[in-house]
Amino acid sequence: MADIALARAPETARQVRQARMLSVGARCALPVAVLLGIGFLAPMVAILAYSFATPRSFDVFRSFTLENFASIFDPTNTVWLSFAWSVGFALFTVAILAVIAYPIAYGLNAVFGRWAGFISVLFVFPLFVSENVRLYGWVLFFIKNGVLDGTLKWLGLPGGPEVLYTPGVTLFGMAYTYLPFMLFPMTLGLALVPRDLVDAARDLGAGRLFIWREIELPLAMPGILIGMLLTFVLAIGATAEAKILGGQSIIVISHDIEIAFTYSQNWPLGSALAVVVSVFIAALTLTALSKLDLDRMLGRR
Amino acid sequence: MAGISRRSMLQGMAAGAGALAAGPLLGTGSAFAAREKELNILCWEGYNSAQVLDPFREKTGATVKAESLTNDPTMINRLRAGETNTWDLINVNNPWARKVMLPEKLIKPLPKAEFEPFFAQMLPEFKWPYKWAMSEDGADLLGMVQRFGPYSFVVNTDKVSRKTAEETGWDLFNDPALAGKYGILESDDWNVFNIFIVAGIDPFKVHTPDELAKFEETAKRVFKGAKLIGDIASMNQALISGEIDLHLTGGTYSVSPARADGHPNLRAITPLKGPLAGGKGGISWIEVTSTVNNPNLSPLALEFLKYVQAPEVAHTVAFAEGTFNPVAQMGNKACFDLFTKEELDAIQWDSLEEEMARSVEYDIVPDYDKALDIMNAAKRLRG
C-alpha cells in the first residue's frame, strides 16, 4: 500500500488537499455515519461501558469489573430461567407463525388475486394501534365475564376457558403480535418463485407435494428464513405479552433487564444482561445471514 | 435564486453548522439567564396532569415540564446521575428528603417563614413542625406535603368482608385456600415491605440471616400463589371481573379510581395489627415535594409550591387523572368543602383517620437490595 501511495504521490498543493480529503462517497455518507454514531453506537457504547461498572453504581467509565457478568453466570443465579423462557417463547412463536403464515402468504401470491392488496392491508392495520392497547383488548376478550366468557354464558353455555395469566396465552399474544413480521418476508419469498418453474414441473409429471418440496420451498427459503429471523429477534425481546396477557406468570429476560434498571437501580447488572442477550442475538443473526443469499432474495426474480 | 452563489451557499452552511455546534453552549447560557419562565418537575403521576399544570402555565406564562415516574429510587437516582441541573422540584415519599436527599445535597431547604403558615391550614397530623417535612435536626424545612394515604392491600368485600380482612390481616396471604385468588401489584419496593410483613417480620430494620431465609420462603410461596402480577389498572380490572378476590400492595391510591367508577365493594384495607413498630398493621405514605439543589433554581419552584396549597388547586391535585387521594390541605374547610360525597367515598374518607393511625409511615429498608434480589429470584420461580 505504501508503495502505491508513493507512486501516486501528489505534486501540487491542490492534489495534496484532495488526497487528504475523504472520497465523495465517504463525504456523502458522513451525515448518515454521524447520525448512526450518535443514535445507534453511542447508546450501545454506554450500555457496554455500564456492564463493566461497579454493581449498583453509576461509575461508568470510571470503574472496571467483571462482577456483573460473573453474577449472571453464577450457577445460583436463576436469571437463566428468564433467558430460557424467552428463547423458548421465541422458538415456539417462530414455529407457530411459520405454519400459520405460510398458507396466508401462499394465498396472497396465488389465490386471493385482486383481493390480495386489501387482505395485506388488513394484516398491516393492527400495527397502527399501540401494541399495549391491542393486548389490553385481548385481556378484555379473555377475562372472566369478558367478551368470550360473557357471550358464552349469555348463550347458556358454561363459559369460556380460563386462559388468562398463563404461559399459553403469552405465547398466543406473541404469535398475534408478530404475525405480520413473519407474513410479509414470507410473501416476498414466495413471490420470487417463478411461475414457469412450477408449471414446467407439473407438465413433467411432478405431484403437488413434490413441487412444494423441491421447487417452492427452496426458492422461497430466503424470505422464509428472513421472516423467521426477524420474528425470533423481535420475540426474544418481547415483554408486553408476558406482562399484560400472561400476568407475569413468566418473567422474561427483557423484563429482568427492566427490573434491573428500575426497582433494583442496578444499571450495571441490567447492562450486562443486555450485553449477553445482544451478543447471543447478534451471533445468531450473523450466522443465519451468512448462510442466506441476499442477492437472490432482493435482486433476481 | 440568482442571488445565491455557491460561495454564499457554503458560507450559509458554515454559519449554520457553527450555530449547531454552538447550540448546546448557547442553550446553557440562556438556561442560566432566563429560568424565570421555566419550571421542571420530577414527580409521581398527578402533578404532571394538564388539570394541575395548565392553570399555572396560564398564570405565569411559563414553560412547565413534568415527568412522572412510579418509584422513588429511580427519581432520586436521576438527581444522583447529575440531573440536579435540570429539575427544580422533586416529589417523592416521606423519608427520602430528610434521610437521603438532604445529606447527599440533592435538595435545598425552603424559606421557613414563607411556608410555615401553610401548615396551619393542614389536617391536624401535619401541623408544624411536621416530622417528614423537616430535616433530622429540625432546623430546616425540606419540602411541602400534600397527598398521602394508607397502603397495605385491597379486597373485594363481596368475597372477603372488611371485618375478616382487617382482623385476619396479612395472614390472608398465608392461607393456602386463597392461593390463585389474589394478585400482586407490580410495585416492588412496597412488595419487599409486604412480603416481610406477611412473613411476620418488621421490614424497616436490618434483618438476620434467619429472617431473610423466612423472607425468601414467604416470597416464593406468595408469588407462586398469585394469579397475576400487574399494574394498578390490571389489578382493578381483575378485581372487578372476579378473576381475583384481593391483591397484595394497594390502598386508596390504587383502588380509588375503581371506587369512583362505581365499585364501592372494592376497598383498601389496613389490618388491625401486624409485626410493624407498635404492633401496627399497615404502612402509609406521605409525599414530600422539595426544591432540587439546582445551581440555577427557577424562581417558579417556590411559586408552584405555594400555588398547589390553594384550596381549589389542592382539590384538583387530589383528583388529578389516574389516581385519587386525600390531601393534607383538607384540614382547611374551604378545601374540604370542594369534595363531593362521591369523592370522599372514593378516597375512603370514612375510615381514613383510623387507618392512618393503624399504619406506620413509609420508611427505608436498610437491606433493601438484598431483599429485592431474593424477591426477584422468587418471582422467576412462578413459571
TrEMBL record, chain A:
- Provide a GO CC annotation, any one: plasma membrane
Q: InterPro entries this protein is in?
A: MetI-like, MetI-like_sf
Membrane-crossing residue ranges in chain numbering: 28-53, 83-104, 111-129, 175-194, 215-238, 272-292
Q: How does it sit in the membrane?
A: Multi-pass membrane protein
The UniProt keyword set, sorted, is: Cell membrane, Membrane, Transmembrane, Transmembrane helix, Transport
**Where the protein is mainly located, per its record?**
membrane
| GO biological process per UniProt | transmembrane transport
Name under which the protein is recorded: Spermidine/putrescine ABC transporter permease
Question: Which species expresses this protein natively?
Answer: Ancylobacter defluvii
Q: What is the lineage of its organism?
A: Bacteria, Pseudomonadati, Pseudomonadota, Alphaproteobacteria, Hyphomicrobiales
